[in-house]
Amino acid sequence: MTPPFRVAVVGCAGRMGRMNLTTIHATEGCVIAGGSDQPGSPAVGADIGSLIGVDPLGVTVTDDPVELFARADAVIDFTTPEATRRHAGLAAQAEVVYVVGTTGLTPEDQAVIDQAAIQTVVVQSANMSLGVNLLQILTEQVAKALDADYDIEIVEMHHRHKVDSPSGTALMLGQAAAAGRGVNLDDVACKARDGQVGARPRGEIGFATLRGGDVPGEHSVIFAAEGERLELSHKAGSRGIFAKGALKAALWGRGRHPGLYSMRDVLGLAD
Ligand code: NAD
Questions:
Q1: CA distances from residue 152 to 134, 141, 181, 230 in whole angstroms, order as listed
Q2: Which is catalytic among the residues 25, 159, 162, 248?
Q3: What is the CATH classification number for the domain harbouring 255?
């Protein structure tokens, strides 16, 4: 009999952490190897079952990621950029499949993840859902088909607790639009407008950010020209879609060669 696939969750007391635990618990062939949260978190020392509303599982939340990585086949990380930098190094040492969903990463954070991917399998995406990965492909195709007479604006809305802006997904969609147009996003992005900013420059890719309530994530890419407007949209109804994608990525990564992969690879959508 194949032994169960042991999946650990770092940041397991967070919104996505709990959803990841629930998804692993409900998936045949997978077991929760354990979970960590930051030192001082009230969850540390609690039985993991209590975090997801099931009977005790006999595994407690730790604040020591080193011992956690040692007993896992895969680790799922939706935490903060600072924590992710540390986790990426540990994943490389332990050679576990490392799935990263954390957003708001700086180029320095990304370099640490890229380095880890030399030693182990890393799957990283700012959005783990099938729908958004399809939206990314559609955005690139539409941007390629339309010229700069079509102004591109990306609108996103998330819950009031989200700390980074624009969302990682909005930036990922911006990258797709820029790639379709054959331009560099950093050269054409406008991430905020306030006051007398003047007329919209041709070719700009604009971002608008809404925050409020408990919205898990909504994104629209708008192509607006004189006389017509094309809009591509995705609405996440629950965080379950991201957790399902993250676990799919962990299972997909089992036995693969070290490298940096995306959800497009996992979903078979890569070129
Ligand atoms: P959250 O604040 O609810 O959860 C983060 C958790 O990480 C908290 O429990 C926090 O205590 C913990 N944490 C912080 N530092 C830690 C450390 N050093 N060690 C262990 N745990 C630590 O946030 P969230 O809404 O769950 O989102 C987390 C991240 O995931 C954000 O960057 C968000 O943008 C991203 N996200 C990505 C996707 C995707 O599909 N890629 C989807 C949703 C959210």
A1: 18, 13, 10, 10
A2: 162
A3: 3.40.50.720
- Does the active-site annotation cover 158? yes
Tally of structural domains, the chain: 2
Distance, CA of 215 to CA of 212 (rounded, Å): 7
Percent above pLDDT 70 for the chain: 100
Asked if residue 271 belongs to a domain, the reply is no
Q: How far is the CA of 101 from the centre of ligand 1 (A)?
A: 8
Ligand 1 cavity residues, CB under 6 Å: 10-11, 13-17, 36-38, 41, 78-80, 83, 101-104, 125-128, 168, 242
Establish if 229 belongs to a structural domain. yes
CATH (domain of 216): 3.30.360.10
Instruction: Single out the catalytic residue among 25, 144, 158, 244.
Output: 158
Q: Are residues 40 and 174 located together in one domain of the fold?
A: no
Q: What is the pTM of this model?
A: 0.95
pLDDT in tens, 81-112: 999 999 999 999 999 999 999 999 999 999 99
Average pLDDT over residues 13-41: 98
Catalytic annotation on 87? no
| Predicted local distance difference test score (pLDDT) of residue 74 | 98
Give the model's pLDDT for residue 54. Answer: 97
Environment class of residue 69 by beta-carbon count within 10 Å: exposed (0-12), middle (13-18) or buried (19+)? buried
| Domain that includes residue 68, residue range | 5-124+239-266
